[in-house]
Amino acid sequence: MQAAFVPQDPDYDSRVRASFAAQAMMTTLHAEIADLAPGRVDIDFPHQDGFTQQHGFTHAGVIATVMDSACGYAAFSLMPDDAAVLTVEYKINLIRPAQSHRYRASGHVVKSGRTLTICQGSTYPIDEPDEPIAIMTGTLMAIRDARIQH
Amino acid sequence: MQAAFVPQDPDYDSRVRASFAAQAMMTTLHAEIADLAPGRVDIDFPHQDGFTQQHGFTHAGVIATVMDSACGYAAFSLMPDDAAVLTVEYKINLIRPAQSHRYRASGHVVKSGRTLTICQGSTYPIDEPDEPIAIMTGTLMAIRDARIQH
Amino acid sequence: MQAAFVPQDPDYDSRVRASFAAQAMMTTLHAEIADLAPGRVDIDFPHQDGFTQQHGFTHAGVIATVMDSACGYAAFSLMPDDAAVLTVEYKINLIRPAQSHRYRASGHVVKSGRTLTICQGSTYPIDEPDEPIAIMTGTLMAIRDARIQH
Amino acid sequence: MQAAFVPQDPDYDSRVRASFAAQAMMTTLHAEIADLAPGRVDIDFPHQDGFTQQHGFTHAGVIATVMDSACGYAAFSLMPDDAAVLTVEYKINLIRPAQSHRYRASGHVVKSGRTLTICQGSTYPIDEPDEPIAIMTGTLMAIRDARIQH
After folding, report:
1. Which of A120, B56, C98, D112 has a C-alpha 20 to 30 A away from that of B48?
2. Hey, what's the torsion of the CAs at D123, D107, A67, A77, to 10 degrees?
3. Are D138 and D89 in contact (CB under 8 A)?
4. Residue B18, SS3 per DSSP
5. How many alpha carbons fall within 13 Å on the CB side of residue B149?
6. Considering the entire predicted model, what is its pTM?
7. Nearest to A87 among B51, B69, B94 (CB)
8. Which helix (H) or strand (E) holds A16?
9. Smallest Cα–Cα separation from B75: which of B21, B145, B143?
10. Alpha carbons D141 and D118: distance in angstroms, whole number
């Protein structure tokens, strides 16, 4: 269902990595870009004991945060070089317990528009790629105004 | 639209607080229960520099995490004393920039069922309750099995 | 949580009604605007035997269709007079069986932006306003281009 | 990402078709099952002039209705023979204008659980399978009680 995307900005790779590096949250979560292509981003992150829910599993909030970043940077990779990206909304389904030591969140663009980009993502244990623990659909917005606003 | 709810468990308050205290994630985010009633939970949390997105605002992942907890504990407050609560899914809209120093995430039950509970929530700057930065709708599930599963 | 909205277009009422009248789908569903104010629209519609699911209840698709219209026209009422409105996405929770003879779908604006408007809605049996059968959150987009595109 | 599913009910095909035939809404929309396999259902439907939005395109409500059915029957195909299926919630993104004369809505199971099943779907013009006009994620519930309830 997914076509190949041609980035508008030939330097999309360094632009995405610079923005990712500027997110303190990604550093706090020890999240790392594992793969990056036009319209697709994979981010790896570990279980951390300080980021658990009441049964000791990885907190869904961590999974949502990184998967939202994977979707956001997948969208951002196709935007022009003067655009900022904002998440308008996302919906997440938590479909299996998050009991692994390390995960991969993968986001890809479904539809790239001038203003809005639609992405889907999934997160799975790094060694069980066929057993996703969560899936996401999100809407991202390209912002060209100097002052960021919705 | 919201009726008064009668809790099945008279000790709902201490049960909710014990579960909240067991979430390491809430401690990491310095999140605190500000108000708790049957079917309604408010949680306060501060901006932290280690939890920001690329423009220095509070990361949407933090907001989603705490608002999901507010919704989850609103649902949990109405469940019987032998039930665990799991988030099945949620959808969040990010509607204003998160530029405050402190926020309140408020979750309330819309419909309480035997298996599923539907909640809605909003998050706003602590001193601007009429200017929500995000809204959420979520589905929570009561689990009675010893072994937690979806 | 909801502020009073001031319409940009003083003729918002007739503009909304003209667009509603142009939707053949609303005529087919015998849907009627019951109330209309800036940022808020109520639409009434009956059960019809040709629009049922497998147990003979009103089909969720009918409920979603009318509630999406209520949200869309609530958004449209606040847009400038040269704008068209498109639904970007919505999420619906079906929370009670749809067993009534007549329903009201109510949509209101949560946040009105230049490009995007966020709405929430609910649908309930006309004689049971406190027992909603479904709730919705949606994102609507103002389109000013001559040629409609996302 | 999608594994092969083994149906619990060997007569899943006739059970799905019987339930589909009982939905008056599908008849009204001239919707037909085009393909049916364990965990996957395709439904075709035409544009009809009585089911349009204000610009004359196929109404999003029709697309959502049929795609919800495709997801619902994909889930139902994997349920035991004494179960009924209910849609708990879905989220739809409308990503391209619906300007075709005929569409295919395709739904497949992402995760099949004892109580809940998670599905994803897409709808595309029958002659443009790589250009989806809408995508959906939904949660379906198996109901075994004699009296249907959420």
Report:
1. A120
2. -30
3. yes
4. helix
5. 10
6. 0.95
7. B94
8. helix A12-21
9. B143
10. 9
Question: Cα dist. A61→B64, B92, C75 in Å?
Answer: 7, 12, 31
| φ/ψ (deg, to 5) at A122 | -145, 155
Residues 6+ apart with CB under 8 A from C54: D19, D20, D22, D23
Inter-residue contact A123 to A100 (CB < 8 Å): no
Give the largest CA-CA distance in chain B.
45
CA distances D86 to B99, B120, C55, C62, D76, Å, are 41, 21, 10, 15, 9
Which residues lie below 8 Å from residue A74, measured CB to CB, with a gap of 6+?
A39, A40, A41, A107, A108, A109, A119, A121
**Cβ-based neighbour number of residue B143 at 10 Å:** 18
pLDDT tens digits, residue range D134-150?
A: 999 999 999 986 455 44
> CA-to-CA distance for B96 and A101, rounded, in angstroms?
34
DSSP, collapsed to helix, strand or coil, labels residue D131 as: coil
| Residues A59-97 pLDDT 10s | 999 999 999 999 999 999 999 999 999 999 999 999 999
How many Å lie between the alpha carbon of B10 and the closest alpha carbon of chain A?
A: 21
CA-based angle D59:D60:D65, to the nearest 5? 105
Residue range A109-122: average pLDDT?
97
Please state which of the four CATH numbers 3.10.129.10, 3.60.10.10, 1.10.260.40, 3.30.450.20 is assigned to the domain occupying A12-143. Answer: 3.10.129.10
Q: Which amino acid is at D62?
A: V
Residue B72 and residue B120: Cα distance in Å, rounded?
Answer: 10
- Binary contact (C88, A91; C-beta < 8 A): no
Q: Is A138 exposed, middle or buried (0-12, 13-18, 19+ CB in 10 A)?
A: buried
Which residues of B make CB contacts under 8 Å with A?
Answer: 19-20, 22-25, 27-28, 49-55, 59-62, 64-66, 68-69, 84, 86-97, 148-150
**pLDDT tens-digit series, residues C82-94:** 999 999 999 999 9
The answer to whether C132 contacts B110, with C-beta atoms less than 8 Å apart, is yes
Q: What string of DSSP letters covers chain C?
A: -PPP---SSTTHHHHHHHHHHT-HHHHHTT-EEEEEETTEEEEEEE--TTSB-TTSSBPHHHHHHHHHHHHHHHHHTTS-TT-EEEEEEEEEEE-S----SEEEEEEEEEEE-SSEEEEEEEEEETT-TTS-SEEEEEEEEEE-SSS---
Q: Is A140 left (phi over 0), alpha (psi -120 to 50) or beta?
A: beta
Q: Measuring CA to CA, which residue among C147, C140, C74, C73 is closest to residue C113?
A: C140
The pLDDT of residue D150: 43
